[in-house]
Amino acid sequence: MDYNISTNTYLVRLTLEGTPQIDSLVQALNECSSFVNQNHHNLLFIDGSQLACPFDITDKYSIITKLGELGFSRKTQIVVVTSSSHFERNTLETMGYNRGWSINTFKKLHEAKDWIDAYIDINNVENQMKVC
Known about the structure:
Layout lengths: L1 E6 L4 E7 L3 H17 L4 E9 L5 H10 L10 E5 L4 H13 L3 E5 L2 H23 L1
Helix pairs in contact: 2-3
């Protein structure tokens, strides 16, 4: 599995390609957490739309249980694009929620981007209100 990490003012984006491999994902997330913490981002966008198939549900559970160890804060908002079924996406969100993580999953990239844009707009308004 190949991955690419990019950042901007608001988020860290992890793009995954090829055949899912849990060890590569752990390495990529470890690198992402450094960017998140270094740049004080609270939004991680994981784009799995280019994977040959989604990660197995047991792999997803394993990753959720390691997020803290990888250096993420529970303040980090995680957005995932995956070709998983609706049931598996809901299960992933619930597994995260039950462990204190905020994870939102989407099947389509444009839906995730719309959600991210709205999230950024809301945070910008809240930050402006704190200044006043």
